[in-house]
Amino acid sequence: MTDPREPFRTLDELEPPDIWQRAQRLGPKEPPPEPSPSGGRRVGVIALALVVTVATTGLLVHAFRAPPRIPPATPVPITPKANGKIAYLSDSWGFFSTSQVTIANGDGTDPILVDGSKGNLEDVRWSPDGSRLAYVDTNGEFGGAKIVLVSPEGDASTTLFETSGYIAGITWSPDGSTIAFGTSGDHSMFGAGVQFSDYHLETVSVAGGKTAPLGDITRATSPAWSPDGTTIAFVQDLNHLALMDVADGSSQIVATSTPASGPAWSPDGSWIAFVSEAVDGPTTIALIRPDGSQLRHIYTCQGGCLPLLSWSPDGASIAVTDFTNHSESVELLSPTTGDVRTMDLTGPRPAALDWQPIPADGSTASSAPLTSSGLVADGTLRCTVELPVNPLVPGQPTGASFTVTNVTDGAVQVWLGTNGYAGWLVFSADGLDLQDSGLTHAGIHGPPPDEQALAPGGSIAIGAMDTAVLWSGPLDVTPHCVDAALPAVQMEVMAPGAPASADAAIAQAVSSLSDAFVGCVPATSGAWVTGTFGTSDGTIDARCGAYVVERDGFDVVALVAVSPPDAPELDLAQLPDRIEAVPPPMFPQGSSVRVSWWVLVLTQDSTSCATHYAMSMGPDSYGGGGGICRAT
To answer: Which CATH class is domain 370-491?
Structure first.
């Protein structure tokens, strides 16, 4: 049996939080410097060392790697949606051009340019809940591209993913947690060395920006997620329409008789529209069933059609960008009658129109982002926090962002980076404090912060300590910034529907980590079983347990493995609340034990990993750490 005093080995299928990646690369650091005289809570957003020593010997615990983020194969319920506003690219499109995201009413009236979205843009897509937009900004022929998220108001702009290569198509997962995209990978300026065989599919987590490969297919571009989440349509080998099974990554080509690009699913998942560019014939818009049957062409492009199709949420129209002699128009096609109508859109060369999905009952798709603001740092700075997602998604971080603004007539010193100024959140309900997200960085050491002079009126973002949401709503959320508490806001929490029973929730959680709990499978909340636990270097003897907390509309499940099996007892009920970056010892001093646990959020249709921790202790040493992980 593996010596429990040795550092943890990694599991092949579990991803280390960023803090561990950096700890492994950089090794131990000196303790953090004393806070600067200006005061304030200084905890780094990026951890650079995570070694906690209780005697003369330190022990660094290697983390566990999570599987590539592919949402579960269980179909997502398809609910009817209505057409909200439209978003499109205006002014110009293509290499060496400047365009901007424009939002307008469904008929094109009252257009508004989205602040901060100007660049060499090539695509824009509404999130499934209609609360924000994702677009692709590229450097044209120079190579380099990024995926940017922005609210319809133009604030809360975030670069989610960036590459020195190219991005070929983006698509949201139906639950809004992930964006899939085609990419060539990183390359040098001018795209030197880019081969079509370099193109492949990846995913990026919307909450944490974590990327993962999507299948192992090369020469793949233009992904499109099916409405039920089980299938991804994409373009294989430049011109073949193919489908990937999300459950196992297998794929098959479904359209071989006609070239295909830019696939788009109908809202009910019964049809796929795509651009068909015949070698010696006209370019058309075609429809096909997902099984490859009933191929039909419904529109002949007047010049050429961009492979950026969009199906209206109500299923009545397909938006097509048709261009001739450097002039674009957006055509609306009826998939049933073939009727064509040109959209009257403001701005030259409109392109890539996409509809905002809203509930069919006419209610708003999502509440507006919440903000709170107050003076900090002895009144010299105003701190503003934005919570962009409301209602909150259980098992996912809040996405909070903090900005400080100099409100004085002179320069103000601010401290940035590790151990610099930071913001955090305290959650409560019915007057009872539930969690302090500042603990997600407790015990982290790192270098001194960077000092910067902030000019009068100047603003700058500071670190945000976030945590996954594990409680039912409504929640009172009190932001803390630098050295003061800001006014509280109240947030709702989604209740998608819990598994049928606590035992069913455990089985679902174990299934998502089956490579770890291969021979040590807990089945009942609060009970322990003994067996073999899977690691990258084989199996070890362990004692495994599970603990279920039933919430309104979802379950929280803690799974744990302790080695050796006869190690001292561990209180399972404590595990969901342990969010410290470096958890304190949980066993009597002198114990030789290692333990790893996961906190997962389960609904009827999904499993997400909220937090993951690992620790190991011996007679003379202790080490541990963890953090927010992403959905499995």
So the answer is: mainly beta
Q: How far apart are CA 537 and CA 9, in angstroms?
A: 7
In the predicted structure, residue 230 carries a pLDDT above the cut 70: yes
Per residue in 252-311, pLDDT tens? 999 877 888 999 999 989 999 999 987 777 889 999 999 999 999 999 988 788 888 999
Q: Name the residue ranges covered by the structural domains of the chain.
A: 18-39+61-70+496-628, 81-359, 370-491
Sheet bearing 272-277, strands edge to edge: 261-265, 272-277, 283-288, 296-300
Question: For 1-25, what is each residue's pLDDT tens digit?
Answer: 323 223 223 222 333 333 222 222 2
Residues 476, 487: Cα–Cα separation, whole Å: 10
pLDDT at residue 328 greater than cutoff 80: no
What is the β-pairing status of strands 593-602 and 607-618? antiparallel
Instruction: Find out whether 485 and 478 touch, Cβ atoms under 8 Å.
Output: yes
279/238 Cα distance (integer angstroms): 13
pLDDT at 102 over 70: yes
Nearest to 438 by CA among 485, 372, 387: 485
Q: What is the CATH number of domain 81-359?
A: 2.120.10.30
Report how far residue 616's alpha carbon sits from residue 593's, in angstroms, rounded to the nearest whole number: 6
Cα(442)–Cα(439) distance, rounded to whole angstroms? 5
Cβ atoms of 561 and 517 within 8 Å: the answer is: yes
Tokens representing 433 are 């404090």
CA-wise closest residue to 7 among 536, 544, 532: 536
- Give the pLDDT confidence of 233-258 residue by residue, as tens digits: 999 987 899 999 988 888 999 987 78
CA distance 517 to 539: 10
139-148, 219-228, 370-379, 411-420: least confident range: 139-148
The answer to whether residue 408 scores a pLDDT higher than 90 is yes
DSSP 137-155: EE-GGG--EEEEEE-TTS-
Say if CB 241 and CB 224 are below 8 A apart. Answer: no
- pLDDT at residue 193 tops 70: no
Report the 10 Å Cβ neighbour count for 291: 8
User: How many CB atoms are located within 10 Å of the residue 435 CB?
Assistant: 20
Beta bridge partners of 299: 285
Q: Rounded to an integer, what distance in angstroms lies between the CA atom of residue 36 and that of residue 412?
A: 14
375-413: string of b/e by CB count within 10 Å (b at 16+)?
ebbeebbbbbbbbbbbbbbbbbbbbbbbbbbbeeeeebe
C-alpha–C-alpha distance, residues 519 and 455, integer Å: 60
CA angle at residue 398 from 449 to 41, to 5 degrees? 30
Lowest mean pLDDT among 235-239, 390-394, 615-619: 390-394
Length of the chain: 632
Largest CA distance in the chain: 78
Distance CA(53)–CA(61), nearest Å, equals 12
